Each structure stands twice: as structure tokens, then as C-alpha cells.
Amino acid sequence: MIAAAVSAAVLITAGAFVPADSAAADGIVTAIHPDGRVEWTEARFVKAEENGSHAERVPGTVHQAVLAGDVKIFTAVGSWCASAAAGLATGLDGTGSNPCTRAEFLAAGPDSLDAVKITVKGDVVTRIAEYYHP
Fold first, then answer.
1. pTM, 2 dp
2. Which phi and psi angles does 36 have, rounded to 5°?
3. Could you give the 3-state DSSP secondary structure of residue 97?
């Protein structure tokens, strides 16, 4: 299925995700703070009888970083994102392509989101794209 894609060496220091330059990985958002901090665990996709696959948390992989002021955020369906166009929109990797605002993401609870592909540069989240899951 969809595997975690990491494009740079990754170090884990004091619970923070610190890539050498920029990295994208699959995750499950566990907390969204009003000040722009996001917490997540790494995700792995496992076979499921219903809908083909299921994202599950990888134990011991807690990360946190702050959203960039110009962070790019995308959803597939947009149920938590009022500015997203109606209907399903995904890229070839299965992540959403409907853009959402930073404010909409901060207002969403982590339970509103399915698994995401999260891109981090330094200690700043530059992109979050929610995977489509029926």
C-alpha cells in the first residue's frame, strides 16, 4: 500500500521531528494547538477487509512542529474545510488536492482528520495533505 516516504535523513530529538533539510512522511495528527503547534505520530498502512487499508499509529514515534505562516494544507473531501471545493479531489499519491486555510486547520480537531502526509523543513511544517479514505 502507501508506505512512509522519507526523502532526507531524520533525527528525533526531544520529541521533535528534525529532518536534515526537508522530509515528507505519513502521520496521524494527535493534537492541533491554537498557537500553530501540531503533534503527530508516524503512520503505517495495513491491509483491512473494509476499504482495502487502514492507517495505524506507529508506537513511540511522537513528533511535534509548528505550522509555517504560509503552510499549504489540502483535504480530499473537505468535510472539516469550508473553503474546499465540493466533491472528491486527490493527487496520484492519494492525498487531497482541495486547498484549505491555516485557520480552518487550526479550528479542526485531530479526530476530524484521517492519515496525512506531513512535510517538515527544520522544525516547521510546510505542507499537510490528508489522505483520502472512504
1. 0.78
2. 100, 0
3. coil
